[in-house]
Amino acid sequence: MALGAPALVSVLGRKAFLVMALAPASAAVYALSWTTRVMEGVHPTEVTQWVPGLGLELAFRMDTLSWLMLLLVGGVGALVLVYCSAYFSPTASGLGRFGAVLTAFAGAMVGLVTSDDMLLLFIFWELTTVFSYLLIGHYADRKASRRAAMQAIVVTTAGGLAMLVGVVILGVQGGTFRLSEIIADPPTGGAVTAAIVCLLAGAASKAALIPLHFWLPAAMAAPTPVSAYLHAAAMVKAGVYLVARFAPAYSDTTVWRTIVIVLGVGTLLVGGYRALRQHDLKLVLAFGTVSQLGLIVLLVGLGTRSAALAGLAMIGAHAMFKASLFLVVGVVDAATGTRDLRRLTGVGRALPLTALAGGLATASMIGLPPLAGYVAKEAALESLLHGEGPAWVNTVVLVGVVVGSMFTVAYGVRFFWGAFATKRHVAAAVARANEHVRVEAVTKDAAAQGTAASSAPAQRGTGFLPDDEPIDPARIHRQPALLVWPALVLALLGLATALVPHFGEDLLAPYADTYPVGEPGHLVLWAGFTPALGLTVLILGVGAVLFWQRNAVERFQASLWTGPEADRTYRRIMRRLDEVAADVTAVTQRGSLPFYLGAILVVLVAGPGLLMFIGGQWPEQVKAWDRPAQVAAVAAICVASILAARSRRRLKAVILVGIAGYGNAMLFLLHGAPDLALTQVLVETITLVVMVLVLRRLPPYFSNRPLVASRWVRLGLGVAVGVVMMGFALTVPLARVASPISLDFPAEAYIHGYGKNIVNVTLVDIRAWDTMGEISVLLVAATGVASLVFLRTRSGEILRERNATSSGAATPGIWANEEDPGAALRRRGVDQATEAGKQPRMLVWLSAGRTLAPQRRSVIFEVVTRVLFHSMIVFAIFLLFSGHNAPGGGFAAGLVVGIALIVRYLAGGRYELGEAAPVHPGLLLGTGLFLSVGVGLIGLFMGKSVLLSTAIDISLPLIGTVHLVTSLFFDVGVFLVVVGLVLDILRTLGAEIDRQAEASAREDAGPMEAMEPDQIGGGRR
Known about the structure:
Blueprint: H1 5-12, H2 16-20, H3 22-33, H4 35-39, E1 45-51, E2 56-61, H5 64-87, H6 95-114, H7 118-136, H8 143-174, H9 179-184, H10 190-206, H11 215-218, H12 224-230, H13 235-250, H14 254-275, H15 281-301, H16 305-336, H17 347-350, H18 352-366, H19 372-385, H20 391-420, H21 424-446, H22 452-461, H23 481-498, H24 501-512, H25 531-548, H26 550-559, H27 566-588, H28 593-615, H29 628-646, H30 650-670, H31 674-695, H32 708-731, H33 745-751, H34 758-766, H35 768-789, E3 805-806, H36 823-835, H37 859-882, H38 890-916, H39 921-941, E4 951-956, E5 960-965, H40 967-1001, E6 1015-1016
Parallel strand pairs: 3-6
Antiparallel strand pairs: 1-2, 4-5
């Protein structure tokens, strides 16, 4: 569904969100269908092997906790997507991307809460981090959104990495990564204690616990549906889920209880305290969410059965009332254009259904009966009154929860009052503003039409109000039903579930009973006159007083020293980190590639090289060579390398390096590896040509000064690295403790790859995944080179000879602006032939040869090119089809075709290249990669692994049986990618640089001349 979301939006517009809602709704329906069996203790499990060699598997299991989370993730997600269909404007941009990411996020959450493998859980955990980053930063043009998204991903990714450390430690210590097995038989020890701390650090980052709570209020820059889903029922609940999942195993440890109590109580108090002074409705809910998350983490992590039952009930209640409240804020914002509670008045009368939803959800949040929040909070107070820990700890926790709940009542009533109440002082301000508008309207009627003085008040009268003016209730319009009903449904569900608390207890008690200590808890709507009820009355009373004295509370908070705020501390740390990174980069990244390479090589020599010479195991006998030809090849390589290291001219160095490469090819051939030798020769040839093309735009010397000392340093370092690498070649084979895998390559290549050329079969079958990655890198490299070189927009334009325009110049053609010493001789021959009454004979050896200026043409080169080009193409085809059993293959064949194209380009110029290959290189690159991937799926369809070769025998009339191997088509894909890469390089580093250099060489070249086609002329054809 996520992949098809953009297409759905392009067809259905914002109504596509109704279709997308089916995806999370299906998860909720699935959970509901298993309700009875989950209550009976039946936990569905699905396991599929993923990477058997590494022990990775796709293991999913649904117990009571997973059932609850799956129901919330699916149900709330479906309602939020329905809400989106009316929330966004029909002309809003990016809806396809938003819908895809939101649906994908729901899918990641489904995978997270049902994973029974800890590594798989981590993968889904990180997916939610990435998707939340994209959702929070949906409004990419707003700085606040970009900053909030970056803040969220930095904090949660850091926590995720800490969690990964804990997961690995637990898996190693427990001997399994199965979550259910770890919980059933938890490992112990000092390492496990460190793992517990890491797991709780990950949970704290996701659940926005102090001191990492600051990212959640900042994330309110996201669209309201994102806040309603991610920060009420999904993303932040992932941290709560992690605590609840591991609590039955480790809640009895001291480190667990200490961290949970400190973070839970602290977050509960800090979030509630901060919510009391917010004026933005979303920020009131955001800090309220932080506070509520602290309470939930405290309950599910405390370790007692009764607290766990209350925590599970609070998870469900919180998802319903907080998601409803966020959606209500979206309705109010859409109807009034503001979320500032100081400007709102009379909204409840204008939007009665929205006010009803907000009232029910607020009542549930502050703990009024008969709503789900009240049932859960009563169970929590009852549990804390009968705590299992030390008395002073129980007292601290109970007092913290009571005070935090008082804050909840205060900011909850403040939210409802600010959003929906009719405020007398605001109404009076609205009346004064309307009176001012009427006076201005009279003035406008009396004034002349079109004056500037009357235009501004007219705009105010039509509803364009400054940010600090109150909202007139008369201008509030009713909102669509799809925008109102999702919030009302969630609020009513909070009422309905509270009326049947015993049903919720039956559903949630099985998981609460897995906790190690404590008496079972109960969910009841009325338990009589108990101490818990007395605390509830106290909480409601004090909370009401705090709201009544809200102005005094705000002044009191403003008078206190706030201390360092977490958000500012984070920004300060990130700023200092950037400064340190800049300083380190200034020292280490000097912009010199020789310096970088030299540093790497020095470390190689001083580190592994020195250790090798000190403690390495050396062979007892070394044979210097098998035949004298090897000595000659090595001597050529050494001489070329020494001269290259001492060279000052770039071209000289490139040629010498090429000679060294050809010497290596000779060594391959002498050692019986003709396939490697052929590939090496072809690669060196193309590399040499490409380097020469690049050098045309570079200075001839590496440096303007003859730095003799630096040349000796390069030579010394090169010799040292050569000696170290030679030592590695001698010592590394002696360090092997197992049989090399290459011993099985010949048999594997023939039996499974159906080929005798081990090198080629390795590329297209045994190591096909590596080849797939390499050709992908080639495609990216070609795209990057073209993007750097092309000044014009890169398109499908192919330079053909017929598209060149005639200049009518005396010496026509490309590069015609250069001096032509032989022009008089050519002109003399033409004039003599004309006087004799003969037509000058001008043979055409190349299709676009006439586009070159005469002084740039070589008849001998053109004739040789005409003779060799087609032979090289035929030879390449031979290499392509014979490479499976003989030297060759798609890579070598592609290089041969590339060399043939290079010859055509060098002989006839850029228009000749277009005539030789009238196809866009991007088409070849994309087709090659697509063909390789498509062929890889054939093995899957045949019941084998992806990219595994399959032999197919086809009987053809007159020909007989044709034995085909699917890897041949993979090889064809490699062939196309290599040809496309060479063609793209020739078009960029060759043809395009030619055109730019020629345009810049003209003295009268204008700034737009590089955008114009070439002007050519020439003789008859």
